[in-house]
Amino acid sequence: MDATVTTDTAPSGEHGSVIAREAAHFGEMAKDWWDPRGSSAMLHRLNPVRLRYIREQADRHFDLDPHSFTPLAGKTALDVGCGAGLLAEPLKRLGAAVTGVDAAAENIAVARAHAAASGLSIDYRAGGIEALAGEQFDLVTCLEVIEHVADPAAFVAGLAGALADGGLLILSTPNRTPVSRLAMITLAEGTGRIPRGTHDWDKFVTPEELGTMLTRAGLTVRDTRGITYSPTGGFSLSDSLALNYLITAVRA
C-alpha cells in the first residue's frame, strides 16, 4: 500500500485505489510478515489452502501437467496486494515470471529482501493497481485485498485490465455475513489473533456483489469456492461461502 498517499481516508493521484490508513496499517506489519507466529500468522495458515485452489484452477484453465513441479513455466503472474511475498514466492517456485505489487513500501522492502535471501528473482513494486497501466499477465491473483481498497468496482476493472487474453484471475475475500463478523472481528481481532483494526466488516464484499463487478469489467465467473476454519482442522476448502471465499474469472 502506497506510502505516497498522504490522506487518512481518501484516495488520490495515480494510486486512486489506495487508502492511506490501510497502507499504514499493513506497513506496520511488514517486519514480522514472514514470522508464522507473528501478526500474519493467519495468512501463513491460510496460504496452503489458497495455493491448492490456485494450482487446481490454473491446471484446469491452462491444461497444465498436474504432476509438474514448475507448471507455470512460460507464464507471467501478477500478485496484487502481495504483502511481503507469501504468495509471490510460491508462484515463482511454480515456474512463473512473477510481479508483486503492494501499496505499503515497507512490505515491498521486506519482500525484496526475503526473495533475495531465498535466491528468487521477483519484480516487486510499491504502488496500487494503477501503477500497472498497460501491462498484462497470464495469471492475476488478488487475495484478501479488495476489502481494503477505496473503490472496489474500479479496482476490479483495474484487475481485469491487467489480465491478458486467455488469462486467469483469482480473488479471495471475506464474505459480509454474521459468521465473518463473529469469526474475524469479534473473535480473531478481539483476541489479538489478527491485529485490531485490520478489517472493517462493512467493507466486506459478498460473492454476488463481486460477481456483478467482474461481469461489468467484462469477465465471466468460472468458479466460486468457500474457505472454512475449525480449531482442530484449520483452514480448508468448502462449499460454504459464509466465512471467506475464492472466486475465479476469465474474459467473457
List keywords for this structure.
single chain; 252 residues; alpha/beta; Rossmann fold; eight-stranded mixed beta sheet; 8 strands; disordered N terminus; Ubiquinone biosynthesis O-methyltransferase; polyprenyldihydroxybenzoate methyltransferase activity
Describe the fold and architecture.
By secondary structure, the protein is α/β, with parallel strands linked by helices. The model is unreliable at about 1-15 (pLDDT under 50). Helices cover about 30% and strands about 25% of the residues. Strands 3-2-1-4-5-8-6-7 form an 8-stranded mixed β-sheet.
What low-confidence regions span 5 or more consecutive residues with pLDDT below 50? 1-14
Report mean pLDDT, rounded to a whole number.
89
- Structural class by sheet pairing and helices: alpha/beta
Rg is: 17 Å
Helical fraction: 25-40%
Binding site for S-adenosyl-L-methionine: 50, 81, 102, 143
Catalytic activity: a 3-demethylubiquinol + S-adenosyl-L-methionine = a ubiquinol + S-adenosyl-L-homocysteine + H(+); a 3-(all-trans-polyprenyl)benzene-1,2-diol + S-adenosyl-L-methionine = a 2-methoxy-6-(all-trans-polyprenyl)phenol + S-adenosyl-L-homocysteine + H(+)
GO molecular function: 2-polyprenyl-6-hydroxyphenol methylase activity; 3-demethylubiquinol 3-O-methyltransferase activity; polyprenyldihydroxybenzoate methyltransferase activity
Function: O-methyltransferase that catalyzes the 2 O-methylation steps in the ubiquinone biosynthetic pathway.
